[in-house]
Structures are given as C-alpha cells and as structure tokens.
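Open question from group meeting: does this chain pack into something compact, or does most of it stay loose? Before anyone orders reagents, we agreed to write out a predicted structure and look at it together. Recording both the input and the output here so the notebook holds the full record.
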Amino acid sequence: MIEQPVFIDNLKKVREKSPLIHSITNYVVMNYTANALLAIGASPVMAHAREEMEEMVSISSALVLNLGTLSNKWIESMHIAGKEAKKIGKPIVLDPVGAGATFMRTRTAHIIMEEIEPAIIRGNASEILAVAKSVVSTKGVESTVAPEDVIEIGKELALKTGSIISISGKTDYITDGKNVHIIEQGHPLMGRVTGTGCVASVLTAAFAAVNSDYLSASTCAMMAMGNAAEQAGKEASAPGTFNYKFIDALYNLGK
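Structure tokens returned:
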C-alpha cells in the first residue's frame, strides 16, 4: 500500500509539472474530466482528429484511450495516437468503457491491448472481466463474481498483458500481477454522478506522467479519487452538490 507521504509527494509533482494529458474520450465526460485534471493541477487536451494525433501525442505527457462513445473515426485516431505514444515511450491508460456490452467495444479493447500494450488498464469490475475473458484462464470470469475472484483475474490479466490493472468499485484493487494494493475509500454518491470512472482514468494518466512506477501512480490516482469523494460526501447530500464538491475536493487535496 502507498503511504500518505508518498501520495502527497506524487500530488506535489503533478502540481509542479502540470502534465498535459491527451484524452481521446467520450462526449459525456469531456468537460467533467477536463475540470478534474485542472483541479488537481494537470492540464487537459481533448483531441480526436486523426490528422493531428502524432503531433498532439508528441507534446503530451500521457495518453488516455476511453471507449465511451466509439466511432470508427475515433477508433482510427486511438490507434494512431496509441502507436505513436508507444513508440516514444509515453504512458497510455486504456479505459474500456462498456466492454462486454457490445462486440465493437470489446474487440476494440482487445486490439488496443494487443497492439498498443497500454501501461495501465483501468475500469470497473465488469469491464475488466469482459476484457479478461479471452486473455486469462482463471476460473470465475463471469458478470458476477466474488471480490477475491476479481483480484485473481486482475492479477492474471496483469501478468498476461504486462499492464497495471486498476479495478474500481466500492473497494479498489490495483495490481501488477504480484502485488495488490487495496483502497477502501470513496462515497456512495460517486455512483450517482456520471463520469467518476472516467475521472479516475485521467487522474491515473496524470500521476503516471510524473511517476514511472505505474503501480504506485495508479494507486495514488485512486487514493485521490477516494479522498476527494469522502470529503465531497461530507458536504453534499445529493448528486448535484456532490458533483461540484468533488471537483473542489480535488483542488483542495493536501492543502
């Protein structure tokens, strides 16, 4: 587990370096995730045109590939950006939003995993289970499994892919295949606000941009999510208030 002083040190690095995070993400969350990055001290750019992918990747510190609102053009841009980021050594975070819901989403996630080899794959339990189905052999890869099964599937997926696997939920599990970090922070209202998972992915990219130990970086990102959610929950009684209090809490982390 990451100790609080290590988290604070990583948070300071994000704020000092203000890494530019290039997100090919979905229409639903662009504004929210951009504001979350700004609140924590990073810088956002949401660029999708294939014609500028290589140039945008070259000036960015990390890349997020979010499958939330897919189209063939966006998939093409993801491949161009992902291959360029891989070539020049920029950290890539894959968020397989909705994997398992449709063939298109699941196949796109698998191709990205195989061809681009993201440093980190971050999703909820059902998404991670969906992308794991064709990769791991652990018994129990189903839509509903016990928490201990999710951990084992995540560990095997990490070993098979070489990616850090970050599984978000009531309890978060982050693993490199050998070590498992468990975070039991957050608030029930997170599930009543759209985009909190997507925020977790862009924050993961922000921490990965300043910390090449991607297990540590991923854990710090989920600690930021949990800490901010708990603080926002203390001041909010409903989703709308929680929404903006969460952004405020990200801004006030460590202060």
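Observations to bring back to the group:
The two ends are 22 Å apart (CA to CA).
The CA atoms of residues 13 and 210 lie 6 Å apart.
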